[in-house]
Amino acid sequence: MSTERPHSVSVAGVVVDDQGRALLIQRRDNGHWEPPGGVLEREETIPEALQREVLEETGVKIALPATLTGVYKNMAGLIVSLVFRCEAADGTLTTGDETRALRWVTREEVSELADEAYAIRVIDALDAVSPPAIRAHDGVKLV
Q1: Domains detected in the chain
Q2: Which of 7, 78, 98, 135 is 20 to 30 A from residue 41's alpha carbon, by CA?
Q3: Torsions phi, psi for 14 (to 5 deg)
C-alpha cells in the first residue's frame, strides 16, 4: 500500500462578463491573482462546490450549468483542478475572508497579473474550446 498522500480535487470558476473580461481575485494568503475557487468538501457535488467557492470569494452567484474548459494538475501540490467558464446570475461583487481584491481583466491583463499556471486557466476558459484543455504545472509554470 502506498504511503503517498492522495490528490485533492478543486474547482475554479472563470466568471466572464458581457465585455469578455474575466473576474480574478487577489488571495489574502499569498497576494496572487487567480480565478475564484477551492477544494471540494466531502459531501458536495462539483456544481455545488463551484457555486459555493465563487460566492464565498466574490459575492457573485453563478448560473448553472457552467462549461468545463480545462483540467489542470499541480504536480507539486497534488491538486487536480476542474475549471469552468461561468456567468454571473446574481449578487454584488465583494471581497471575502480569503479575498483581498477583485478585478475584471482582459485576456492581455491576465497574463500580466497571474502566474502562468493560473493565467492559462483563464485564457482556456475565455477560448472555451472543445474538448477542454488538459494541462500540468508545478504550481507556477506549465510543465
Answers
A1: 8-137 (3.90.79.10)
A2: 135
A3: -95, 100
